[in-house]
Structures are given as structure tokens and as C-alpha cells.
Amino acid sequence: MTRFSAWNVFWNGLKGQKGWTRQWRDPEPKPEYDIIIVGAGLHGLATAYYLAKNHGLKNIAVLEKGWLGGGNAGRNTTIVRSNYFMPGNRQFYEHSLKLWENLSFDLNYNVMFSQRAHVSLLHSPAATDGAARRYNTMRLTGTDAEIWTLDELKRNIPHLNYSPDARFPITGAAVQRRAGTARHDAVAWAYARGADQLGVDIIQNCEVTGTIRENGRLTGLETSRGTIKGKKVGFAVAGNTSRLWQMAGLGRLPIETHKLQAFVTEPIKPLLDQVVVFGVGGAHFYISQSDKGGMVFGGDLDWYKSYAQRGNLPIVQDVAECALSILPCLGRLRLVRHWSGVMDMSMDGTFFICKTPLENLYLNAGWNYGGFKASPASGWYFADLIANDRPDPVVANHDLTRFERGINLDERGAGPDPKLHG
To answer: Is residue 39 within 8 Å of residue 62, measured between CB atoms?
Structure first.
């Protein structure tokens, strides 16, 4: 496989781009693997990569029912940040951001990570006080954070709606400068390429249709490409987690599957060099500008349970209203497309990386709104759990029994509002 370098890019440009080799293999599944990861999204691919790279394991397969990165990996708004407050979350997301900062070099593939700053708008003195508490805690524990006054915000982003009569008057912002965005497709391709180079079999168009259980273990998977046995199995399938969980005969999970839409406009000249977010008065909105010039943005869930990867018009209207409330200059732009990711919403709004009631089955799920930015650390800690059969202290409380122990891990303690919306 060709290793990317400035010289290779230059040389292949002279040769008509005909010297590149295939970036990963398309192997036939083997009858048995030491480890099977179900789901070739970012978390599944990252897990396989770190299993091979960090732990020296070789006989690994990643199974994907469709094409690589065809689920939530390609259906998000590409935001990367680590501005978390709660113990466990702070360490996890800061580790993830540090991995992001070196990911292109580690994987020898440009994931287009751009540290353009994450700007959370504030709308009242109380909001500023709350953000100051959270961001001071981040600073004390090694994460960059700062509070911008209204004048400083105006200097950096002059075209927001600063009118005192605005629907959501702006008073300042909480900022993490090291945060930013990355290209979701490039990240999937980079992890696939890296895992393949280390001997991992990535098997596409291989849907899991059933499981084989013996003596409290999952000994194999029935798939659309035949039976595949595995000594250890990891689930990393986002919104389809409940389906596989029931397929394994484990009943119900504290997870609901909801749709989260994202949107992109026609390309325009450079307008916004940061990620801007706000949440107030029932509104929830985030926006950035892609390298191609399109405005990429999103908001709240569709608020009913669904496995569909398509959205609905009420959320289109809601998110468009949020966009115009803070960026009225977008009013004449045309919306090019919108899509929906299938979100695995846990009851407290945070994730599971843990062992399960089956001895050799491991779970990576419950990512809610934040799965993309967590991809490197998710793969890192899930690989560590599978390889060593025990959780790292950072994720020790991210298990299925935390509700019984009264442990709340999310920043706002809210997941999908179960039974309230459907």
C-alpha cells in the first residue's frame, strides 16, 4: 500500500494519478476470528485499529451490513471538542481531543482536522456564571477554556445578531480554541486504511442476522455471508444496538433510538471561521462552515423513536429558525440537502463502554449527540477493555449498572426524555 507523502502526491500528479494502490482490502470472511467487531463506523474501525496497534492483536474482523462509514459516520456535523465538566467525561474527551490533534500523522491520512474554536453563546449573566464554573474546572484539570466578553465576541465574529431586541440577546461566549471540525468520511477511510495495514479484515455487505450462544458465551454470528465464529465479540452499531442486543437474547437496554438531522447549504464565500453553538429557551443549534463553503448545521432530535435515516420537515423549520435568530445574513441561502443519523440515546445522555451479561460480549453504545468527537478515545478504551477484559479507570463507571448505583455522568443529566415523547 502506498504511503502518502508530499513527494508521492507530486509524483502521481505528474503521472495522471495512476500510481495509487487500493487503500484497503475486500477479503472474504474467515470461518473464525479471535475478535469480531460488529459495525464499521468510526467507533468500530477505531477499535479494530487500536486492538492491532496498541495490543498487538491480529486475527480481527470488522463486520458491516452495508458499506464502510455508511451509517452515522457520514451523517453528522463533524464537531470535535472536549469542553466537558463531569469527572470521567473530562478525562475521556480530553484524551480524545489529544488523539485528534495527532490523528493525521498517526494514520498517515489527512482527516482535515481544523482547530477553529468552539464558541458557545451566552445569553444572560446567570449563563455566564454557570459557564465560568464549568470552564474554570476544565482549566484546573488541563483543558483549555476561556470566557469572551461581548466586545471580544464582536471582534471575532462580527456578523452575529447582536441586537438587544433579538430573540436570544447575546451577552458573551464560552470558548475552547483547540476544538474544531474534521472531515467525517476522511476519518472513516483513515481508520479503515490503518486497520487494514495491521491485518484487520474489514468485511462489508455482511449483515448480522442471528447469534449463537453456548454456556453464557456468544460463540458465533449468523450473517448474510455465512456463520462466523468469534472468541470475543464487540458491538459498536449506534442506533441499531437494541436490535443486536435482543438478537443476542439479552432483553432490553436503557437505550432509545431517535433521529438527529443535519443540514448543509449551497457554498458561499468564507463567513464563519469557528463552530458556533447555543442552547436557550428550548432552542438547540450548532453551525460551522465546511472547506467547500457550505454552512453545516443541526439542532434537536426529531423526538420520536425511529430507525429511519431520513428526516422530517418540522425539524427543518425549527433549525432554520434557530439559524436565522443568530445569523440573519443566511436568510437568502438555499438548503442543498439534509439527512438523519440514527442515535442511540441512553437514559442519562452518556455512553456505555463495558462488559455485558455474556462473558465474551462487549458493548460500545449510548453516544447520544456526541459520537463523532469521541471516535478516537472510544476506539482506544473499547480496545483496551476487549484486550484486557477489564475497563480502564476512565470508563469504569460507564457501565450498565451505573443507574443502580445512582451515578450520573452527563453534563445535564438528560438523555432522550423516555416516555415523554413516545
So the answer is: yes
What pLDDT is stored for residue 1 in this prediction? Answer: 62
Residue % of the chain over a pLDDT of 70: 97
**CA 314/CA 293 separation, integer angstroms:** 26
CA distance 82 to 259: 24
Instruction: Give the model confidence (pLDDT) of 245-297 as tens digits.
Output: 999 999 989 999 999 999 999 999 999 999 999 988 777 899 999 999 999 99
Residue 421: per-residue pLDDT: 46
d(CA 308, CA 304): 11
Q: What is the pLDDT of residue 129?
A: 94
For residue 415, what pLDDT is reported? 58
User: Could you tell me the pTM of the whole model?
Assistant: 0.95
The strand pairing partners of 148, in sequence order, are: 173
Full DSSP string of 301-364: EEEEE---S---HHHHHHHHHHHHHH-GGGTTPPEEEEEEEEEEEETTS--EEEE-SSTTEEEE
Q: Is residue 193 a contact partner of residue 4, using CB atoms and an 8 Å limit?
A: no
Q: If we measure between CA atoms, which residue out of 32, 62, 72 comes closest to residue 383?
A: 62
Residue with the three cell numbers 443507574: 403
Q: Which of 99, 164, 177, 101 is nearest to 135 (CA)?
A: 177
C-alpha cell at 174: 464560552
Q: For residue 130, give the C-alpha cell.
A: 454557570
Instruction: Compute and round to an integer the Cα radius of gyration of the chain.
Output: 22
